[in-house]
Amino acid sequence: MPKSSRTGQRLFGLFLLGCLFFNYPLLVLFNVRTTLLGVPLLYAYLFAAWALLIVLVAMVMERSD
Asked: What are the residues whose beta carbons fall under 8 Å from the beta carbon of 4, sequence distance 6 or more?
């Protein structure tokens, strides 16, 4: 299997993971009245999920070289 095909498949998998992270059922789990280090839990979750996706995409793209 060509390297670009594997990279594309990994990026598509990360896209699906992002759709899962930012979809209704998971967002409702974190929409509670509590804070994490003074930040509402939903905002902390959104930032952490977004940062994780960026790191994973960077790892996939760095490995493709």
From this structure: 64
Domain boundaries, the chain: 33-65
- List, in sequence order, every residue forming a beta bridge with 36; answer none if it has no partner: 39
Residue 64 has pLDDT above 70, yes or no: no
By CB atoms closer than 10 A (0-12, 13-18, 19+), residue 41 is middle
Q: What is the pTM of this model?
A: 0.87
Cβ(41)–Cβ(13) below 8 Å: no
Tell me how far apart the alpha carbons of residues 60 and 65 are, in angstroms, rounded to a whole number. 9
Provide the 8-state DSSP code for 23: S
